[in-house]
Design a protein that fits this description.
The structure is a homodimer of 645-residue chains.
Chain A (H helix, E strand, L loop, with lengths): L1 E6 L23 E2 L5 E5 L5 E4 L13 E4 L16 E2 L2 E5 L4 E7 L4 E5 L6 E6 L4 E7 L3 H12 L13 E2 L7 H14 L5 E4 L20 H10 L3 E7 L2 E2 L5 H8 L5 E2 L7 E3 L2 E4 L6 H10 L1 H5 L4 E5 L7 E2 H12 L8 H12 L11 E5 L2 E4 H4 L3 H16 L6 E4 L2 E2 L7 E3 L7 H16 L5 E2 L1 E2 L8 H11 L6 E2 L17 H27 L4 E2 L1 H4 L4 H4 L5 E3 L3 E3 L9 E6 L3 E6 L5 E6 L2 E6 L5 E5 L3 E5 L15 E5 L10
Parallel strand pairs in A: 6-24, 12-13, 12-28, 13-14, 14-19, 19-23, 23-25, 25-26, 27-28
Antiparallel strand pairs in A: 1-11, 2-3, 3-10, 4-7, 5-9, 7-8, 8-11, 9-10, 15-18, 16-21, 17-18, 17-20, 21-22, 29-30, 30-31, 31-36, 32-35, 33-34, 33-36, 37-38
Helix pairs in contact in A: 5-10, 11-12
């Protein structure tokens, strides 16, 4: 049962696709303050909060506060309140009631999940205008399903999007890309795609390809595709200001770029230096920008990742000038604690400055709207531009698409990756803990940069990380410029990686089918144990194991030098300790606590009673998977597993 | 058995106090490269590495690399190679052998503990000159004891230094300090000291007190002491350049400040703006600077913390001028990825710039030595200056002293705190994992900023953190300016904190005695389980439990929203689940794995077989502890516990 409450005069975000008649009266369970900016709910000690999508900390969000404010911040520390996304949906699970709340507003919202006061959940709107959807349900899963029912079906990627993707900022030319493919093939490690980060472009200009790096791009795309490997180029939000560059000139001519209050174009800067930002909130701009993907589709490209679309801003021309003027005032002074920190703050405040987001305007449904009021819709609508274009340009083909910034609604057009994480053990655990919340918000095609984007990975961390991310739909190894090489052939003996990636490919029929099922049923793929064992208090407290689809539970190892871990089984299950698809132990374990060995390269998987886990013989490419090799690992039941496609 | 190897012409660091005749030939177990800059040891899969003092990651240091290079870096992330200290001692535990290595050199040393290649331990000297001490031992503990035997006895603090200290950057005047004391007393939470961070000074000038904030400092110190509370002021390494300021003028007149190559004084900047740095490597400078503490001792002060002594440098005058000149070159340019990052790098490179550490010189044993070659000795010798002064000025009194930067040898003069950590759950675990390594290097009086220095704490994090840090000798709550108030009366119902701090005070007889015993026996207080159960493979892998003294093991909870945890018992023990000194459950548990409840405020403590844990009735001050209230919790044995003082 979903009730809709209109607060003020909210803007249409297009995140909800079902017409619901607004209810009168107050939002159930919550108390509103007089100004109507804050809703509060009193929690019992054992109440838990799920959802909130891409955020830091545990699966149960209780005990911290979160601000929906899409931010380009690579420091995913425990004290961050905002990452790249705004996912304003949460489920409250109390002993006495279960309900969900979705706050649909393009501006800032704070969810204080017991941070200020451990017993108080508050939802604080920066602006007055919002639509609140209150969802009563029989269970957390039921609340999620109802919610997902009103926001539209999740995006389905092409099946090859379940294969391994190899990425690095950046493979600089076709020789290097070819070498990556060759070395994966030589190592016998399955691979389906190689990502092109910003350096494939000509001067960081969207929808261009560097002639020097890729003399005949189409031919190279074909060459790679003929060996079963797709190239996936990046597209950034900012369009370089450069005379003679068609996208820039068309954008200016068509009035597609965001403007300042005086009607002049905003000049910001990202990779290419000065850029304009398309006004993705306008339908005609989305259509125009979306059509630009055609030049790459025509070259044979079948997948993209949309980046820097919070939008990230290195600086705005206006603010940078001000800073340079102010800097002069610090010259020759005795800079003490105040002066020096002020000076540093001046410089640190150049990128992604909140003031800059108040400098420019969108045209939304014919109205002029200041950016900060609709900030969280920007990445969504960039990806929507692409998704809508793909529907027009290649309606019969699924195109791979995921984005860094997102808002609920974008899940219909693409997935997300969790942005610029680091090669830290704690970020492996964060990856585990982020998956359920992302799924609840509709983002089924999601995953983190396996091995970590920033910082230097180690072989053992990569093995453990892969041992988890073989279960995530988006399965990509990506690293930043300047970090240790982390391609799977570059970290010592590649045999371990061959086995683990092989296991991923063995699991693809299961993972892909569970994905389609979750889309069909508006369900999650990754569930907290609490979703399946709501009456088991211990299970409800587990933060480092996940249900993956209907058949299995996993228990990743995320501690350096660990050779095993404690696992809680809410019921008897069959453990499969995989070393590879061919090499595994099976053991029936009773419910309760266990310490289980899990050496490097061993993947602990638990089959639920009456369930089956289908596996196939791995292939080097998803398309080469031979379903005739399928067999089922089962724990009781019929031993069958049903495919829905 | 310790053997000493001289590599090149090493400088005397005074870290070792025992004369050992150098051995000829090669360092056992290790292979040296031809240049002699790198020692390597081939590890088996199960080999572990302990020690390295104040560093990131787990107790077992294997799998990362560490660079001894004292650094003022508040971001204690997993990928950091250097924190504030240089502790070049490690113990290698292999199935076939146990040995230790101490690399005594004031320059940079890298310990690659299986980072580059998981099977290779390398020690890489930046400079050629070092003394290597190789220690053969029967066990890890034996190696540690032998090592500690050559570096001199660890510092012993006054007993009140085991009480709770409350700190914040900064309590700005006596009213605020008085309020802190009042509110602790009102809440019934024991407290022994209040720390004065930089704002107590007059313009951040060492050995001055702001007249405005503390009109009669001595009287105020007396007032606080009369209620049993000591004030502990901070002392910084840099001396403000200001005409008429006696320390500055004496320092210039006496030639005590470090100089550049041309003989002019180095002008750097920290809190007060421009400062000079005393040359603590000179004995006469240490004596001069040490005597300055007298002005505060005379005011009744009995404890200090030495800070910013890596030394931290906000900027040097020379480098800042260069930066300002370069900045002009960026004005009006189209700053793209290269230009903008270059510009940002220019500014980010101002503080603690490696080039600045090559700008100035020390006089060491009559020789002129460039700072970077002896960088790691600076904090050590600042604290030595203080320690030597206290021996002269008040030989019959123990003065509280700890430092941010340190080198082995400094442990004879004071303790360390682990610097600017954050209010993160992961930093609670880091605190747990840092204690054994610090202890092995001789730093027994140590601890972290409880609750975290940077970022905002939550009530539950503070409860869990305190539940651990009640066991650390240095027990201080400290937070940065701008963060949420984290005094224990400011985080909701203070009853939980009263109980936990009360438990600390109940444990002080045990903790203090185990401290004295560890000093006497050159032992650690905090041991990895591997030290006591070397043949128990599972125990050797435990990274989140510690032996504390001879009688107990602890298992802290460091996970948000957890209501218990898994604990591995290497043998049967008696669990005491403390809620307070008066309120606890006792349960005999067999060896093996257990999931144990530990609600917020419950402290899991395990008494070893045949051992006793003495506890007393808590008092509001350490000095008020009544030893007649002592009782013993025991698990078998005689039920006695022996006090050595």
């Amino acid at each position: 049962m979903i009730r809709k409450y209109v607060i003020g005069s909210p803007m249409e975000t297009d995140s909800v696709v079902v017409d619901i008649t607004p209810s009168d009266g107050r939002i159930p369970k919550f108390k509103a303050d007089e100004a109507g900016h804050m809703l509060t709910y009193v929690m019992d000690d054992a109440d838990r909060i799920y959802g909130l999508g891409e955020t830091v900390r545990g699966i149960n969000k209780r005990g911290w506060h979160y601000v929906s404010n899409c931010s380009d911040d690579p420091n995913h520390h425990e004290d961050k309140t905002s990452l790249y996304a705004a996912h304003n949906f949460m489920v409250v699970v109390s002993a006495k009631e279960v309900f969900g709340l979705y706050v649909d507003t393009p501006g800032k919202v704070e969810f204080d999940a017991g941070y200020t006061d451990h017993s108080i959940l508050s939802v604080i709107l920066e602006d007055f205008d919002a639509i609140a959807y209150f969802i009563d349900g029989a269970s957390a899963r039921d609340v999620v399903r109802q919610f997902r029912g009103i926001i539209g079906k999740s995006y389905v990627p092409p099946k090859w999007g379940f294969g391994l993707g190899q990425s690095r900022w950046s493979y600089v030319n076709e020789d290097e890309v070819r070498e990556v493919a060759d070395r994966y093939d030589e190592a016998g490690i399955p691979l389906d795609s190689i990502y092109l980060d910003i350096d494939y472009m000509d001067g960081y200009k969207d929808f261009t390809v560097s002639d020097e790096a890729f003399p005949d791009f189409k031919e190279f795309v074909d060459e790679m595709k003929s060996r079963g490997i797709r190239l996936v180029p990046i597209i950034d939000a900012g369009v370089k200001i450069e005379q003679g560059y068609d996208v820039y000139e068309e954008g200016v001519a068509g009035g597609h770029f965001v403007k300042k209050e005086d009607g002049s174009l905003l000049t910001a800067a990202v990779w290419p230096g000065r850029v304009h930002f398309p006004d993705f909130l306008r339908e005609d701009t989305r259509r125009w920008f979306g059509d630009k993907y055609k030049v790459l589709l025509d070259a044979g490209i079948e997948g993209f990742w949309n980046d820097m679309n919070e939008p990230a801003i290195f600086y705005t021309e206006d603010h940078l000038s001000e800073v340079f003027e102010k800097i002069d005032g610090y010259k020759g002074r005795n800079l003490d604690i105040n002066g020096f920190f002020e000076f540093q703050g001046l410089i640190d405040g150049i990128p992604n400055n909140p003031e800059d987001y108040r400098l420019f305007y969108h045209e939304k449904d014919g109205l002029k709207v200041r950016h900060d009021k609709v900030h969280n819709l920007y990445g969504f609508n960039m990806t929507r531009a692409a998704g809508e274009a793909f529907e027009r340009l290649c309606p019969d083909k699924r195109i791979l698409m995921f984005s860094r910034s997102s808002y609920i609604g974008m899940h219909r057009y693409g997935g997300v990756w969790t942005g610029d994480n680091a090669s830290w053990w704690s970020h492996l655990l964060l990856n585990v803990q982020q998956m359920p919340g992302l799924n609840m918000s509709g983002f089924l095609y999601s995953g983190a940069d396996t091995g970590g984007f920033g910082a230097d990975v180690t072989r053992d961390l990569m093995i453990r990380w892969i041992s988890f991310s073989i279960f995530t739909p988006l399965f990509r190894n990506h690293a930043a410029m300047g970090t240790r090489r982390q391609e799977l052939y570059a970290l010592g003996d590649s045999g371990a990686f061959k086995k683990l990636v092989g296991l991923r490919y063995a699991l693809i029929p299961y993972l892909y089918n569970e994905y389609l099922r979750a889309v069909r049923d508006d369900d999650v793929i990754f569930a907290p144990l609490a979703f399946d064992y709501p009456d088991d208090e211990r299970a409800c407290g587990v933060e480092d194991q996940l249900m993956v689809g209907r058949s299995i539970m996993i228990a990743p190892v995320y501690v350096q030098n660990a050779r095993g871990r404690h696992v809680y089984l809410p019921e008897g299950m069959k453990m499969v300790r995989f070393r590879s698809m061919e090499d595994y132990d099976e053991e029936e374990l009773p419910g309760g606590d266990h310490y289980l060995r899990a050496e490097l390269g061993e993947v602990l998987t638990f089959i639920r009673p009456g369930c089956s886990l289908p596996i196939v013989t791995p292939a080097m490419r998803v398309e080469e998977i031979d379903m005739k090799t399928l067999k089922c690992l089962s724990y009781g039941g019929s031993g069958d597993y049903e495919f829905i496609e």
